[in-house]
Amino acid sequence: MNALFSLVAIIVIIAAAFLGASVPHLDFLFGVVFPYAAITVFLTGIVYRVIKWSTSPVPFHIPTVAGQQKSLPWIKDSPLESPHNTWGVVGRMALEILFFRSLFRNTKMEMKNGPKLVYGSSKYLWLGAIVFHWSMLIIVLRHLRLFMQPIPSFVLGLDSLDGFFQVGLPGLYITDVLILSALTFLILRRLTVRRIRYISLAADYFPLFLLFSIAATGVLMRYFFRIDLVNVKELAVGLFSFHPVVPQGTGVLFYVHLFLVCTLLVYFPFSKLMHMPGIFLSPTRNLANNSRMKRHVNPWNHPVRVHTYEEYEDEYREKMKEAGLPLDKE
Amino acid sequence: MYDSGKIIAGLVIFIGLFTSPFWYDLASGTALQTPDLVLPTKADQKQCVASLEFMRRDHMALLNDWRTQVVRDGITYYKSANGKEFEMRYTKTCLGCHTNTSQFCDQCHNYIGVTLYCLDCHNMPATQIQGPMAAKILNPNSEILNKLQIQN
Predict the structure, then answer these.
(1) Does A139 fall in a domain?
(2) What is the least distance, in Å, from the CA of B126 to any CA of chain A?
(3) Residue A327 lies in a domain
(4) Structurally, how many domains does chain A consist of?
(5) Between the CA of residue B134 and those of A95, A131, A325, what are the distances in Å?
(6) Residue of A nearest to B4 (CA)
(7) In CATH, what number is assigned to the domain containing residue A283?
(8) Where are the domains of chain B?
(9) Is A135 among the domain residues?
(10) B19-33, pLDDT tens digit by residue?
(11) Nearest chain B residue (CA) to A276
(12) Residue A298: which domain range?
């Protein structure tokens, strides 16, 4: 039901773009107004949410670790699993962000005949996730050839690396195959594994369907129903240099692709996709495990009014003297 | 706001990276330059092998198709939509009209960042060679020209 709802939402979005861009003069709306609006919502939404997160204190020192803490010199510590300083945290965060280390440790639990409970490593989710995310990054960077003029050389290098196999004309990109495979796997995982389908919400299916339709329309435009790329670049560069132009005859499929990307940008700050900035702000990952070396003070602590011994002595000095009690200060 | 220094630095880096195409295109100054094509002026051949819209979108697929037909199926002539026949040869038919590739092909290819590898192996006729290497290659005593002519 959740999957169906998300699917219907995607179909409505595609249909809206398809019909809207077919109407003459509406291409300015789809080609210029929506992209600017989407970028604005994306950036302000992310800034708003990150600043809102940053107003929440971290009351406890809560790194989750999977290794020995730094303690006595003759006990071997693991600086990446249980970092005790900033460089260790940077290394740990880099492993997490670039290679999804904690997902790599994913385990599964199965009941075998016996009955016997068996635990084992489960790498498929990690594989699907890492293939998808890296393909997505390379595809976004590759798109800079259509956004930037003159084209930076690293974009051209990335482009030729991605088309390394030189299959067909225009050449097949490795990431195009990988991203569609990974997204298909991630969608099928939610649909076929019963316990995952049970916990899957519309908000889980929608981004998958959205990303799949973005990748699919891109693939269609490159390999099957080609469009005029010179027009696309004129439009993109026009947007980025604030001289918007809408070349004629670019093709409806391009506007569908662009509208889906705008949808993704607008949807991003309101959704689970905020894990992108969120991973940097996870206290269980970005805190050093140094609670034995440094005191972590809860920023929520109420300021406590204390009455020090010096003040006490000042207050009762005369009386204490009379009673013959020892004094710090005479 | 806690850790405001780190949060603001992170947000500035993120916004800077995300909006980098804006800064790049605004700073480059040449961003709005579009391809400047010099169209052929041949008297006896006014019509391309297919329509303008088709050629703009699908010329690479057409060439790939020609390659397959010539090399694998032995078909060497292409019948265009208006019934005219063309020899399926890139160097003779295409470059026959579009004699200067740097003023035609390369204009759009460079604009959208398409790097061709066809000519890494296939030689162009010596008269089509443009650019800084041309004088060197076109020197009648040059070894490269002798090699090219033998192969052509």
Answers:
(1) yes
(2) 25
(3) no
(4) 1
(5) 50, 45, 106
(6) A54
(7) 1.20.950.20
(8) 44-97
(9) yes
(10) 999 999 999 888 888
(11) B14
(12) 2-304
